[in-house]
Structure formats: structure tokens, C-alpha cells
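Hi everyone,

Forwarding the result from last night's run.
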Amino acid sequence: MRTEPQFADPGNPSPLLVLERVEKRYGAFRPALVSVDLTVRRGEFLVILGPGDSGKSVLLRMLAGLEAPSGGTIRIAGEDLTRMRPGALAHLRRSMGILPPGGSLLDRRSVVENVALAAWVAGTAHEEGVRRARAALGLLGFDLDRYGGAPCAQLASGQRQCVALARALVNRPALLLLDDLVAPLDATSAARVMKVVDQFSEAGVTVVASMRVDTSVAPPEPGPWPARARVLRLLDGKIGA
């Protein structure tokens, strides 16, 4: 019988994520990722910086098992993602909180419904899903009294980002994969969001977050990420320190 990979195991010294010579190519176009080697420890907060076309989104999609590499291996808790069946990958994603670029919200559904839906899909009872959704939104400082029942089509980009992040947090995941985490947020909102994500990290959650910056110049110091975070740069599909 196949056992489920153990994401949250603070006593386990083995890394959670291991990428070896991972590549991604789309036909004759420039490779999206080139021979990427990366190890992420359990409970680590990893920040990946890069411009919009650097390959950050492709990398996070592959870590979530949503896209297969053209070459190399990706292991999560010792399991090779490239050898897992689609059903097993879908089950594995229940232990992840995923923030896709742009949020991918259901515009006709309310704010609370968008967040609670992730809990319902995972098997949480309806009322408990709503309670968790409201708690996650409240944690991010979202104005539930004013916007909780509003359809997401009415939200500004920063509000949509908070709703999408709340959806990623609602199931209390062991691994957070957050693409363009603070892209549409002002400085105050970005700091608040980063503080919440850092609280999850301090509780043992592994965080991999990408942020869009021009890597040809030095990033702002200090950045919005916590001081203990490990920061890598991705440019033209290649990782550098």
C-alpha cells in the first residue's frame, strides 16, 4: 500500500523538496527552466526573486504537480512527482496551499464562498468551511462586514490577492506555494500579508514564495520578506544566489 508523503514532520532531518537538473522547454522557444538544482528544508521560508518572464510561475506549478518537467526529477518528502498518477497528485495537493498568479477567483461567487470552497472540496462540513474562510480572511485584515458577501468581480486587485491568499491558507496546509505574493499590494498590505505568512512559517509550515523584481539591480534592503528567509534569484530559467 502506498503511503502518503509526510510534509509536516519537524523531527525529520530530510529535505521536503529536492529538484535535480530540472528543465522545462516549450517547443523551440527559449527554455523556461535550465538545469535547476534546489533543496528546500522542512519549515524553511524560501523567497524566489525574478522578473515576469524568469520562470518563477513554471517552477511553482511544477512543485505543485500541475506541470511536468521536460527533464530532471522533483521529489517531495522523498516521492518522485514525475512518477505519480494524476489522482495521487490531486490528493497530494490537499496538503498544499497554492496561490496562482492573478488569484484565479470565481468572479460570480462571494468572497467567503471563494475561500470556503477550498475547504469544502477537501471534505470540510459547510458551516465549518465558512467559519474557517472568515477566520482566514480576518487574519489578513479583510473587511468582511463590507465585502464578505460581495462577488469577487467587484474587488480591486489587492483585495482579490488577499482573498486568493486566504483560500491558500484555509485548509491549514503544510506547504505554501505562493506565486507573485505581493505583486498587486501596496506597502502596508504587503507587510501585513508577509507577517501572516511568516506566522505560518514559524509554526512549521514550509513556504516557497515568488516575487517579481528586476534582478538586474539589487532588490530593496530590507525586502518585505522576514530576515530569516532564504532568498534566491531566478533569471532566464537559471537559479543564482
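The radius of gyration is 18 Å.

Cheers,
N.
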